Amino acid sequence: MVDQLGREINLKNTPKRIVCLVPSLTELLVDLGLSDQLCGVTKFCVHPENLKDQKTVVGGTKSIHIDRIKALKPDFILCNKEENTQEIVAACEQIAPVYVSDINDFDAFYTLVSNLGVLLNCQPKAKALNSAVKNRFAQFRKGVAAAPTRNVLYLIWRNPLMAAGRATFINILLEACKFNNVIIEQDSRYPEVDLELLKKADFVLLASEPFPFSEKHKAEFESELEAQILCVDGEYFSWYGSRLLKAFDYFERLLLEMH
């Protein structure tokens, strides 16, 4: 099998000791029934609650304690192209087989879940999760089919102001909600933006992560813009694991707030 960067993954046996360096995928592994096999996580792995108290924290997503990972003697490490650096992946490869995920659309998500089902011997739960997400997504799309298309800008950082561009998983979920990203460059990831671009949006979404936008920041933007400003839960827009199942309920509530 190959991972989502086309790198070959060779496992002699089903992994029994897993280190995950991707918060959203830590939650996914737990929901696939692999909590007992999970031995190392990042300080940002906040779901499920209290998981970090039960596992070894090996650092963040961009900076790890390689000695802690070695000490855990993992037989499988899960990384992500965007969240983890090439240096981290290379260092982890010296310890155990590393699967690098790369999620930029729903098909990539389904592939990841299927691959983990095979590699980690949890195919029934993986198939059930994929089926549940596909069904819920189809139901959601049917429900918003008649909704108007809204011009939005999704801010992820404050100083400098940065937004989610079109070449992101966030944008895939914006499109699912019938939001039109006012950033027009198709290959844009997280560009810096200015006030003039913000003025092109009818709705400005302030994400709770990675920068923790709050009601205080909402008031600041409302004093400068005519757009409707909404604080949104960044986890539902950017976590591409099993949280997707809950995301559609959140999006339905969010759309009701918009006027």
From TrEMBL:
InterPro entries found in the cross-reference section: ABC_Transporter_SBP, ABC_transptr_periplasmic_BD, Vit_B12_bind_prot
Keyword Magnesium in record: no
Pfam families for this protein: Peripla_BP_2
Keywords: Signal
Residue intervals of the Fe/B12 periplasmic-binding domain: 17-259
Superkingdom of source: Bacteria
Keyword Signal applies: yes
PANTHER family: MOLYBDATE-BINDING PROTEIN MOLA (PTHR30535:SF34), VITAMIN B12-BINDING PROTEIN (PTHR30535)
NCBIfam families cross-referenced by the UniProt entry: TroA_like
Name of the protein in its database record: ABC-type Fe3+-hydroxamate transport system substrate-binding protein
Taxonomic classification: Bacteria, Pseudomonadati, Bacteroidota, Flavobacteriia, Flavobacteriales
